[in-house]
Design brief:
The chain is built from 13 helices and twelve strands. By secondary structure, it is an alpha/beta fold. It folds into two domains: 169 residues, Glycogen Phosphorylase B (Rossmann fold, 3-Layer(aba) Sandwich), CATH 3.40.50.2000; 145 residues, Glycogen Phosphorylase B (Rossmann fold, 3-Layer(aba) Sandwich). The strands form three sheets. It has a six-stranded parallel β-sheet, with helices on both faces. The protein has a four-stranded parallel β-sheet with strand order 3-4-5-6, with helices on both faces. The protein has a two-stranded parallel sheet with strand order 1-2. 31% of the residues are buried.
Length: 344
C-alpha cells in the first residue's frame, strides 16, 4: 500500500494520502502520506469482525474523494459510505478470494466453502457500487464475472531501486525463500531441495523469510529445520518489513519459487518472481510451474532436476540474465492515470 500505490499517487500535485492498516516497521516519513494504524487481530475473532466499522469511522472523519479498498472485508462498509456520501471507490483485487479461501489452508476445512461463497456473494452484490476494479493478476479477467468492464490490470510487480545490486557472500551458495510462508507457497519443498543440495555441497545455505499465519504450519516448519543449521528462519511469527526481504535478495545466489499444484495458485504470477527477476537473482523452480517457460526463455534461472547433483552442477556452471528482463517493474503510472480520470 505504501511502496507502490501511495508513493505513485503522491506524484499527483495537491494530493493527500492516508493509509489505514496494520502497523509496519521501517516505513519512512513522507510529506503527503499519513498513516492510521489498526489494532492487530486474529483471523477468526470478534475483533476482526468489528474492524471494518473502525475503519469506516476513520474514513468518515477523513472525508476522502476516493477510497481504495484493498480487501473484501471492507466492501460492505465502503459501499455504505458510497451510498451515503458519494465517495468514489476502487476495489483493488489482490487475490481471487473465493479460490484462496476454498482451496488453501487458511481456514479449517468445514468452513472453507461457506466463507468463500459469502465473500464472492459480497463481491457480486457490491460490484455495481464500485467505480473501478484494479486486478493484480491478468488471469482475474477470466476468473471474475462481476467486473462489468470496469477493470484495469496493474500487476503486483517489483518496486526495487533502479541501481539495485546483489552482493552475495562468495563463500556460500545462498538460497532464498521469501514471502508468505505456508504449505501452499512451497516452503517445505524449498527445504527439501536445500537439504538435497546440501548433501553434495556443505556451502549451501537457505534463508526463509516472511510471515507464517498458521500456528500448525509454523510448528511443522520449526521441526523441519531444527536439525538443519544451514537453514535460517527470519520473521515467521510477525510481518517482515519489505526492506528486510530486499536485503535478503541482495545477499542471495538463487531464489526458490515453487507452488504445489492447487486451484488457488494455478496460473499465478507471484510478486517474488518479478522481484527476483528485477534484482537479477537466478530462480530455481520446477517444470510444472505456470511461469517456468518464462524463466527458461529469459535465461533467468534453472528448472529443478530430481538428480540434485545435476542441478547443483548447473547452478555452479550456468550464467544468467544476459539482458535485463523487461516488464517486471511496478507500473505506477497506470494507477496515476486511473485515479486522475476518476477524480479530475
Amino acid at each position: 500500500m505504501f511502496e507502490k500505490m501511495a508513493i505513485s499517487l503522491s506524484e499527483i500535485p495537491d494530493t493527500s494520502i492516508t493509509i489505514i492498516g496494520q502497523p509496519s516497521k521501517s516505513i519512512p516519513a513522507h510529506a503527503n502520506i499519513q498513516f492510521i494504524t489498526l489494532p492487530e487481530t486474529r483471523r477468526l475473532s470478534l475483533g476482526r469482525i468489528f474492524l471494518p466499522l473502525q475503519v469506516a469511522f476513520k474514513v468518515l472523519k477523513l472525508k476522502p474523494q476516493l477510497l481504495i479498498v484493498n480487501t473484501h472485508e471492507l466492501l460492505i462498509v465502503s459501499s455504505a459510505i458510497r451510498i451515503l456520501f458519494g465517495v468514489k471507490i476502487i476495489y483493488d483485487i489482490r487475490e481471487n478470494y473465493y479460490r484462496n479461501i476454498r482451496y488453501s489452508e487458511a481456514f479449517i476445512a468445514p468452513l472453507r466453502f461457506a466463507i468463500a461463497a459469502s465473500v464472492r456473494l459480497k463481491e457480486k452484490l457490491t460490484s455495481p457500487l464500485i467505480n473501478h476494479f484494479i486486478l493484480a493478476e491478468k488471469v482475474y479477467q477470466e476468473e471474475l464475472t462481476f467486473l462489468s468492464n470496469k477493470q484495469t490490470t496493474i500487476e503486483n510487480k517489483a518496486a526495487l531501486h533502479t541501481h539495485f545490486m546483489r552482493t552475495p557472500d562468495p563463500k556460500y551458495i545462498q538460497l532464498l525463500f521469501s514471502g508468505t510462508i505456508s504449505r501452499s507457497t512451497g516452503v517445505f519443498e524449498a527445504i527439501r531441495w536445500a537439504h538435497l543440495l546440501h548433501q553434495f555441497d556443505e556451502n549451501i545455505r537457505l534463508t526463509i523469510i516472511g510471515f507464517c499465519a498458521l500456528n500448525d504450519v509454523r510448528k511443522e516448519l520449526e521441526y523441519a529445520v531444527k536439525d538443519k543449521p544451514f537453514i535460517s528462519l527470519i520473521g515467521t511469527t510477525e510481518l517482515v518489513p519489505h526492506g528486510e526481504i530486499v536485503k535478503a535478495i541482495k545477499h542471495s545466489n538463487f531464489g526458490i519459487v515453487h507452488y504445489p499444484t492447487s486451484l488457488h495458485t494455478y496460473r499465478s504470477m507471484p510478486t517474488k518472481l518479478y522481484e527476483y527477476m528485477a534484482a537479477g537473482l537466478p530462480i530455481l523452480t520446477s517444470a510444472d510451474q505456470y511461469f517456468a517457460q518464462d524463466v527458461v526463455n529469459q535465461n533467468a534461472g534453472l528448472l529443478w532436476n530430481e538428480n540434485s547433483q545435476t542441478t547443483l552442477a548447473s547452478m555452479k556452471s550456468s550464467t544468467f540474465y544476459p539482458n535485463p528482463v523487461p516488464g517486471v517493474h511496478w507500473e505506477g503510472e497506470q494507477l496515476v492515470s486511473l485515479v486522475q480520470s476518476l477524480v479530475p
